[in-house]
């Protein structure tokens, strides 16, 4: 831990730790820093803070350190860390909670492309009730204004019929109902 972070600890507000507990329902105080979450994470090599370090920062109330990290945006929600934790700390849920808080507070995502992808994915589900890949890609391209990235691969996949040309309808009503219930619960 560097000097800046030691200073931050002095200025820390534990309200961030409490907020993570209230919003995500996770008590990070059970973590005793064994490191099992980080050693099992398939994406740890891409992260600036390992999952263990991120949990430690949340324990210490280092909100800025957490918000400025790329870790939660790179997390693939594979749940390996949560499964391995001997203290049953749901690390993946902490990652999601931090992302929710960042958006609620209208702070910038450190990896904006991941947020744009998530928004395109959710919008697509809301609209079609199930994933319509071409629609999601179209929205993602509009959000990123990067129209040529992966174009060659997309054409190849289209030729191999990996995408449906039109949105499917089977089960879409039920999924829309679930999403609407989730929205109601979120508002409540
Ligand atoms: S596995 Fe659990 S107890 Fe160990 S460092 Fe990670 S969160 Fe903490
Ligand atoms: S859920 Fe995220 S942090 Fe946990 S092991 Fe998977 S990628 Fe890593």
Characterization of the model:
With 188 residues, the chain is mainly α. The protein has 2 domains: 3-104, Fumarate Reductase Iron-sulfur Protein, Chain B, domain 2 (Orthogonal Bundle), CATH 1.10.1060; 112-187, no CATH class. The chain has 12 helices and no strands. It has helices at residues 3-10, 15-24, 36-40, 51-59, 63-67, 71-74, 80-84, 91-104, 112-128, 133-144, 151-159, 172-187. The longest helix is centred in the middle third of the chain and has 17 residues, at 112-128. The protein is globular, with a radius of gyration of 19 Å. The termini are far apart.
- Outline type: globular
The SSE string, one letter per element, is: HHHHHHHHHHHH
Beta-strand fraction estimate: under 5%
Query: Which ligands appear in the coordinates?
Result: iron/sulfur cluster
Task: Indicate how many domains the architecture comprises.
Answer: 2
Counting helices, strands and paired strands, the structural category is mainly alpha
- The average pLDDT score comes to 88
Tally of contiguous helical segments: 12
Q: What is the CATH architecture annotation of the largest domain?
A: Orthogonal Bundle
The fold-level CATH name of the largest domain is Fumarate Reductase Iron-sulfur Protein, Chain B, domain 2
Tell me the name of the CATH class of the largest domain: Mainly Alpha
Biggest sheet, open or closed, and with what strands and sense? none
């Amino acid at each position: 831990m560097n000097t800046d972070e030691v200073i931050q600890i002095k200025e820390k507000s534990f309200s961030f730790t409490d907020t993570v507990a209230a919003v995500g329902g996770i008590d990070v105080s059970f973590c005793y820093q064994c490191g099992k979450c980080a050693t099992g994470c398939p994406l740890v090599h891409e992260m600036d803070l390992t999952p263990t370090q991120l949990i430690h920062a949340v324990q210490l109330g280092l909100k800025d350190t957490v918000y400025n990290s790329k870790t939660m945006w790179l997390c693939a929600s594979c749940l390996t860390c949560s499964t391995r934790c001997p203290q049953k700390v749901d690390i993946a849920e902490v990652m999601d909670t931090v992302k929710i808080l960042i958006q609620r507070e209208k702070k910038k995502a450190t990896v904006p492309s991941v947020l744009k992808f998530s928004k395109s994915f959710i919008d697509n589900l809301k609209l079609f009730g199930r994933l319509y890949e071409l629609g999601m890609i179209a929205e993602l391209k509009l959000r990123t204004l990067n129209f040529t990235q992966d174009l060659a691969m997309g054409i190849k996949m289209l030729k191999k019929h990996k995408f449906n040309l039109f949105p499917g309808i089977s089960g879409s009503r039920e999924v829309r109902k679930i999403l609407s219930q989730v929205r109601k619960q979120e508002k409540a």
